[in-house]
Amino acid sequence: MEEAEDRYKNGGHTLTDFMGSEPTKKRKRRTSFTPQALEILNSHFERNTHPSGAEITAMGEQLGYEREVVRIWFCNKRQALS
């Protein structure tokens, strides 16, 4: 705690100043889906709320999004319905 107080007195006012190190990983920017992509995703979701890994990969390639982005979209969509 004394170290943080010393940093504050010496002009360190950000969280990383108090922690003493820079963050190692930055968050990825939020993905914006096109209306066409949302239409396809929603249509697939109506037929199957839990697509297989192969289906997710195929949708990602078809839509031009990373597989992980499509997987997270399905997770978020299921969560929103809970």
Automatic annotation (TrEMBL):
UniProt-listed InterPro entries: HD, Homeodomain-like_sf, POU, POU_domain_TF
Domain Homeobox: 24-82
Gene Ontology CC annotation, any one: nucleus
Region (Disordered): 1-31
PANTHER family: POU DOMAIN (PTHR11636), POU DOMAIN MOTIF 3, ISOFORM F (PTHR11636:SF5)
Subcellular location: Nucleus
Coiled-coil residues: none
Main location: nucleus
Record-given protein name: POU domain, class 6, transcription factor 2
Any one GO molecular-function label of the UniProt entry: DNA-binding transcription factor activity, RNA polymerase II-specific
Family stated for the protein in its record: Belongs to the POU transcription factor family. Class-6 subfamily.
Lineage: superkingdom: Eukaryota
Keywords of the record: DNA-binding, Homeobox, Nucleus, Transcription, Transcription regulation
SMART domains: HOX (SM00389)
Species of provenance: Hyalella azteca
